Amino acid sequence: xxxxxxxxxxxxxxxxxxxxxxxxxxxxxxxxxxxxxxxxxxxxxxxxxxxxxxxxxxxxxxxxxxxxxxxxxxxxxxxxxxxxxxxxxxxxxxxxxxxxxxxxxxxxxxxxxxxxxxxxxxxxxxxxxxxxxxxxxxxxxxxxxxxxxxxxxxxxxxxxxxxxxxxxxxxxxxxxxxxxxxxxxxxxxxxxxxxxxxxxxxxxxxxxxxxxxxxxxxxxxxxxxxxxxxxxxxxxxxxxxxxxxxxxxxxxxxxxxxxxxxxxxxxxxxxxxxxxxxxxxxxxxxxxxxxxxxxxxxxxxxxxxxxxxxxxxxxxxxxxxxxxxxxxxxxxxxxxxxxxxxxxxxxxxxxxxxxxxxxxxxxxxxxxxxxxxxxxxxxxxxxxxxxxxxxxxxxxxxxxxxxxxxxxxxxxxxxxxxxxxxxxxxxxxxxxxxxxxxxxxxxxxxxxxxxxxxxxxxxxxxxxxxxxxxxxxxxxxxxxxxxxxxxxxxxxx
Length: 493
What we know:
Layout: E1 8-12, H1 29-41, E2 45-47, H2 76-82, H3 96-117, H4 120-132, H5 134-149, H6 160-163, H7 167-176, H8 178-204, E3 208-213, H9 222-226, E4 241-245, E5 255-260, H10 264-269, H11 273-285, E6 288-291, E7 299-304, E8 313-317, H12 320-330, E9 335-337, H13 345-353, E10 358-361, E11 384-387, H14 396-402, H15 405-415, H16 424-432, E12 437-441, H17 442-445, H18 477-487
Parallel strand pairs: 1-2, 1-12, 2-3, 3-6, 6-9, 10-11, 11-12
Antiparallel strand pairs: 4-5, 4-7, 7-8
Helix pairs in contact: 1-18, 5-8
């Protein structure tokens, strides 16, 4: 059974983009109000970006753990309600940078109050969380504590005894940094409690939670530090080859991501245990998950670690068929494949073999290929997810404005649209598509231009910070969306 058995519509919005008093959106009241907005609109899917712990650039695609949740998403307001924070002033500022130290201090205060005042039910829930998640949580909390002690340097620049996980050094570190380890563990407990409560609320309001799983992990992550055998690394803890993609729509020189590649032979030798555990966590957090860069499971772009760009690489075969056979046997969470970029017949065959829906991006539909362009709505198939654009694209209005007059005319002719009505003709086309699921970024629903992009691939700074406010939501927007969804049969049953 797949979630795409019926026609649905969704909105793409990362929780950090929610309104609120702090420098980042969180899992507090505004997240619940957003679910209410979705339900009132007839939207039955909320798609997010990955929820992991980012590095300083805030990219959710380069996280410190494939299991841990982002502590920035923990709602301090909800901690006040639980009695784990005093009813203190939590309007800490308007930028994430200025609030982070204050937020950390308040989370430490919450742990102190939890230890003093938590009732037996809360204490039992905490103990159960520690036990059930020990397979990743112990290494994660230790990793974060050691990272603090090394001034946030990447793990391969730590003292060699910690870098190489010498047994006696780790035993000593667990004792020496026990308070810090406990704090990081508690923060994960808070994140999971708040997220699962939000997910339950969403599900009760007929909204499914749609996650995003990056194919690769950051080199500076607990996953690589604690499981170096799963990756192609040298003795100093550095990748020998790194991930990326060749030149494509997004970049003329390709994208050099820098992630270490997997040691697939080792992973396959133990039944892909690492992947099974990863999918298990995603199954707890979400109702359906998109796998980013699906084509990397058939063959991946391998670039030498010292390369300046991704142009000079090579395709290397991956054991995708064996992996997905194992995952389909062990995991039940429905998957969606991000199958954009250089897609071969072999990649398509792998996706279709396991019945995994692919993606169609309407912004790709009007720039070459004529009427045969696979992204045009009349070329869609039902077992796919159609997007006006994704987090890596310009907003639809920004994209349209950047097109040549000839392309703009072509778009309007195809959609029978007035250019002044953009982006709604594209949204309508997505909803009208035969694709079982149609996803529209919140920026498009609000009719915003390029200044509201979430991410510009290849630009290292200034991304992942976009937010909206409730004042920016036009009166009657929910009714406008609901009318279109009813028209095109996307109201959930």
